[in-house]
Amino acid sequence: MTPKALDGLTVLDFSHLLQGPFATQLLADLGADVIKVERPGSGDLFRSLTFRNKWVGGTESPNFLAWNRNKRSLALNLKSPEARAIVMKLAKTADVVVQNFRPGVMKRLGYGYEDFRVVNPRIVYCSGSGYGEDGPYVGRPGQDMLIQGLTGIMAATGQADNPPTPVGAGFSDQVGAMNMVYGILSALLWRERSGEGQEVKVNLLAGMLAHQNQEMVMALNFNEDFQRPNSGIGHPGMDAPFGTYPTTDGWITVAMSPYAQLVGVLGNDALMRYNDPQTLFDKRDEVWRALAAETGKWTTAALIEKLLEADIWCGEVKSHLQAADDPQVRHLDIIKSYTHPSAGEVKVVGPAIGMSATPPSIERPAPLVGEHTREILLKSGYSEQEIDDLISDNIAGEPPAS
């Protein structure tokens, strides 16, 4: 098999829902052995949540399948002393612990950083939270949309005469996942140099603010908030023509482009009355409506062709299914599939990075709850009888026999 960049790295993954599981999936795609520690029977909460009450293969949540490939599942009742002994035995040879419970939960259960550090001083322990480990919001639920609302991105998205608009994906959680991986890999590099592990803390609130730094710098230094436009202008700080425009059969986007060149393509010289930088901002909604009246006379394909010929920065607006069938997406070969033991064929988006010597890949489907409990415990030195006893005592769990 092709070597992976993180071969030999063991991750104990106590995370659930999106932020932590996406982070550990990224590590697993690169070869890390991610042991997903779940509650016996029910497992990760995302196993029971789905969109539109639809289940892949009739049984599996697309939300769970999206973030948990390439992992093994160990089902343990973490409140039992016997389960804690199992975890700490695994921790002696593990490299990374990841968790995103509310602050204090893991510590109360005996699985805090200091608990792991006692058995393995080289451990890298990464915690993800909504608002940090303390402070006035520490008791609040740290959910993605709530964070979008608190950090300015929702107030800056959408049209002024409509409600603030959340991003149409779990953006805060996904930014948090990337920050987790960034912190973990940095800590592992430090460990190689120093021999010491450390604790990494990531929170969604700080992550979303950091990823809007250009907007924050603008607002903070001029003491002015962005005002959303009333039209399809694509950013509250931008002038026309930046935004989305209708066509006879869909929508297109136009980014930073010379206004006169755009007018030349559309063929209406009267639009040149707006060709002044301050006017293009002050009257951006009016400009948008005037441009939209012209773009609406074209098909998407015809307009995109002419705009590209004029070196206008533009693109089509596509749905998820249309995006999957896009010629560049097909060329990148990023839409993959794997066979799941209960869901059958599962189509997914594959790893998004390329590596010449150690390319990431999909080796395992998302696991069933406890699918690898026996395999993991056998490798850790437990006998078949000991494992049977742990399962019968509801300390450990595995999937029911099919």
Task: Give the tags.
12 strands; 17 helices; Rossmann fold; seven-stranded mixed sheet; 402 residues; elongated; three-stranded antiparallel sheet; alpha/beta
Share of helix among residues?
A: 25-40%
* Percentage of residues in DSSP E strands: 5-15%
Second rung of CATH, namely the architecture of the domain at 10-211 and 355-397: 3-Layer(aba) Sandwich
Question: How large is the radius of gyration?
Answer: 25 Å
| Unreliable stretches covering 5 or more consecutive residues | none
H/E element order: EHEHEHEHHEHHEHHEEHHHHEHHEEHHE
Strand tally, please?
A: 12
The number of distinct helices, counting runs of at least 4 residues, comes to: 17
CATH topology of the domain at 10-211 and 355-397: Rossmann fold
Structural class by helix and strand composition: alpha/beta
Mean of pLDDT: 96
Taking strands numbered 1, 2, ... along the chain, how are they ordered across the largest sheet?
A: 6-5-4-1-2-3-12
**CATH homologous superfamily annotation of the domain at 10-211 and 355-397:** Crotonobetainyl-coa:carnitine coa-transferase, domain 1
Largest sheet: 7 strands, mixed
